[in-house]
Queue: 3 jobs
Job 1
Amino acid sequence: MRFKFDDETDRVRHLGPLMTPLVSAFGADTNLALVPVPLHETRLAERGFNQSDLLAQEIARQTGVPVKPMLVRARRTAQQANLAKAERTENVRGAFALSPEWFPAASDRLVLVDDVMTTGATMQACTDVLVKAGVREVGMLTLARDLQPRELGAYFARHGLEVPARLGH
């Protein structure tokens, strides 16, 4: 939260390495690239940085996998954090487009990079644009997964874990 909302961008040096080992799960390939989830230009101007881009740049620095900012935010959307699942999907419908500077090839293997995933609506909207453009494979890499209490309980049960008392359900 401090990284994203409190302008503590230097935290990327500690957060990026948490994601870096996961890049190997996508395999070694010269067609592999990191694609940060874009912010709308007005939100970027307000915040002063794109946290997803900072994470992608740090991962790239450590792995050598290039960053390709293939997506743009075509329209400003409400912040996803305040929306229910169905509202999130509708909020990001048509919100992303292929950047005019990038032309993905069918052989491209892209990894979307974002800071937090809750319902996956943003990642799905980005993936839809890339697949429609002809990309053969799109992976997803996020720093954190925000599970709602009901989903968290199901996650713990699925993995044979006991739900900590402070979380309840």
Job 2
Amino acid sequence: MIETLVAKRKRALKIYSFLKSAYPNSKCPLYYIAAHDLLVAIILSEHSTYEQVNIVTKTLFKKYHSLKDFAYCNIGSLAEDIHSTGNQNEKAEKIKQACLIIIDQHNGVVPYSLGDLLGLPGIGRETAKCIMGEIYNIPTIVIDTRMVRIMKLLGLTKSNDPKKIESDIMGAFEKKVWLKLSHLINDHGRAVCVERIPHCKACVINQLCPSSYV
């Protein structure tokens, strides 16, 4: 049976409501204080876990307080400070260059437009949207692997194209919940709807999921 858009939106509203109740403290998994901190944390998270990045940044942000601290740092020292996140030399270079660009081209303010953010080393489309939503409250949905997998399981998209997936999700959920939804799905994918062995019996949205084993 084909689900109408109206029915899909009603189901999406219930999905969001149940997930929000299950994860009331859901938020960006990366620790940051200022906008440039989030930028640095995002660069560090490439091929590393959020947990490891947060361990590093809790100390890192006490040493490097400002954008200028990162922009004009000794790159060797920075690489040493972030070595446990992996690829430390490459990441240190990206952090330094990104911060220099922000100072030279954006008056020392982390940009809010997708185009400008994509001009920074180490920032891709989805991580740029994370900054736009988290720092500037611009409605965005981060299309990462968990979002794609869970939205397909929920039958809210069938596409493999990130832009089409994004369009499908935006069409199902209200704009005001897009960013929060990204965090909720991330938490749910880590805690219950894990890739190898989804815990459907413990899932708060199993009755709304056509892929549920329950």
Job 3
Amino acid sequence: MPRAALDQLQLDKVRALIDWTFERSPLYRARWQARGVTPTSIESIEDFRAATPLLEKKELIEFRDRHTDPYCGILCVPPELVNNVGTTSGTTAEPMPLVELVDGAPPFASTVRDMWGAGLRPGDRVIHAMATQRGPQERVYHKLGCVPLMVNVRRGADWEAVFGMIRRHQPAHIYLLGPMIAELDRLSQDYNLRSIFSSIKFAVVTGEPVGARMRARMTDEWGLHLYDVAGAADTGVVWDCSVHDGFHLWDDYVFAECLDPQTGEPVPEGQPGELVCTALANLAWPLIRYRSGDLVRFTREVCGCGRTHTRFYLLGRISDQLLVGGVTVMPGTLWRAIEQHDETAAAVFQIVHPGGKDVTELRVRVGYNERRTASIADLTERLVATIRAATSLTPVLELAPESALLASSRSGIKLPRVVKE
């Protein structure tokens, strides 16, 4: 769809959403009435931005606790119609509800487009890792005519049984979470993963990005064609495409903004800002101008794959920026330094924040692959050198087996990269 037509479609959906939620959501209605906003006030996207306050997770929690409302004041359908409640990952805070399935509409409906674009077709078998958290993901696959294989592939899985299932049923697709990749890397020394994964058309990597070294291992050694998937401020998920040049939003499902985290004002295209999203398709539990905490960079240039919808590049979590002795450190910087070594190619690490404002030393907890590590002392020396080269800081390192560090994850989906102690 041409960009101008997409912009008009988004405005029409935003105006309809304001009408819908003003009548049905006590939280939104109270917030908007306090600012003198009514549905007729919104005639343009500029009006929407000016009149509609940004929404943060803490406001949902406060409303939930104050009113004993498990839906946080934004449920817009009768509770008896709700037939699925998923949750966010809860990696760094308590999980939040995600009401995504009402009257048979599949959760993350736009994902069907991404899966088709990546190559899934009716009759393909698939293995998915998120069914216990996000809800009945198999219904999305059923929309495509695919056959989900219900097998445990999360932490602690019986991989011998999983590999047997793959050999027998020849799935075309597998969903991989960050902790699973480190586990598969260890298993790769005992199993021929290229042979096991030979039926896989593509694998999805979600929860966390994959570093360049591990990506090369997964593609060159294991034979996997990888697609990255990330979140869109809990309004859904975004995929990259066959061109692998940024994450694609679907602008008829989500109205996304890139805003200055301090002022809330839009930043110029191509400049970093916070991802803020409004769910245009989820009329049951719509998040409106919801802050993600993710630092992104937008582009609306037509992608090489032909799509005209908004793309963004994920730069990191705003809360993960750490000032150490006057030097700003981001997990991505450490990631590139740590993955250089074969023993730590999976980049399982955490920055340890001692609390307070004045942080004087860079403390890093690094997980190593026990099967690939001959000398911890030698690895420590090399890690110190590469981290110092990347940050100009001499780190204080604590090394532990990858499995021990991953076991500390609350969600099992991703590892918190900055932890306070």
